[in-house]
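Sample 3 of the quickstart, ligand magnesium ion:
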Amino acid sequence: MLTQAPRGTKDVLPTESYRWQYLEDRMRKAAALAGFREVRTPVFEHTELFLRGVGDTTDIVQKEMYTFKDKGDRSITLKPEGTAGAVRCFLESNLYAEALPCKMYYLNAPIFRYENPQSGRLREHHQFGLECFGAKEATADAELILLAFHLLQDLGIQNLSVRINSIGCPKCRPVYHQALKEFLAGRVDSLCETCRERFDRNPLRVLDCKEKKCRELTKDAPSMLDMLCDECRDHFNRLQACLDSAGIPYRVDSRIVRGLDYYTKTVFELITSTPDGELTVCGGGRYDNLVAQVGGPEIPAVGFGMGLERVLMLLDADGIRIPEPPRYHIFITYMGDHADAAFRLVQELRQQGVRADMDHCGRSLKAQFKYANKTGVKWNGVIGDDEAAAGTVKLRNMENGEEQTVTMADVANLVVSD
Ligand code: ATP
Ligand code: MG
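Result:
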């Protein structure tokens, strides 16, 4: 128990964190190019925020939240998604009083869901998410889809497919709900248990079910797209016009409904096909009523969440190698009692921006060499009696075995410019 992480969680080891940093760097740059700035919100919020924000008929709220009472008897929940916290922060800090839109992103935000752990499904995962508050135009939806698409494509991910849909607004969706309920009424007994519950509380979600029999049964379900009001249809058409002019491949898929209650109009997913089936790597949409629902003014908004673990999984599956930065430029080994000289040189090198280190474990010279070799370092600098007396270092290129003696002052230039 003591040495085992909780089920569904994963460490990022020092040997692999560069992969995360690489991804984070690309995400930051992509967000900044479009004027999004980083927001950091707490890992936990009042449970009420998610009940109100995410919706109490969703899988997340019904089955997946990590909720507990703190010592002050408040009900607290670990973030099961990123949007509700961003909305709370937007309201609490009156960000809506400034010129809109307010564009923000969160990076590497830990997200907690009590799910059945399996490939690509963890109990703690991390998301990169964007939120754009105060923009009602379809260009805002389009730029998010394009940003996600180009980010993933530029990373080298293959077989990306963009699926978009519109799930209408409170004006037109009730009509659709009714039509869908009538369609499902004759089939409800054959649906899975969860969908039988969904039928009463939230019929739209039946379309989102991953069970094969439910998908079969709803193959010919009526489509929301046939029942959109003029405003929603117009918005959806404009979104498609933007995507067309950007020239990215996408598909209208009336089954995309998303697992959160707050969406209106646009919903979208970026999906890839893997040997184990389809994998959603990014999901988002428009949520024009959420800000008001959480107690703020009527402010339209749109956003997405992208799972970092899933992006890394896809990079692996596609055989894309992430460049690993060198851990060290140089390793200083020393003979006899020249540890102090080695220590001083290492400190100086670091001051000059050189990644340098020495032995801290009392190894013999031979063992120091062996260790240095293991780290994959290219340069090794030896300080023996002669070098210590002359203020020089014997540099050895570990790749070709060539040696040269240089003054201590020249080391930095040599190993970094090389
Ligand atoms: P799914 O349909 O796979 O359950 P979701 O609709 O619940 O996904 P979102 O709430 O849209 O997912 O979360 C956004 C993204 O976060 C997903 O597209 C996915 O990349 C990632 N994600 C969601 N749940 C998990 C999880 N349990 N483990 C790892 N990544 C996840
Ligand atoms: Mg889910």
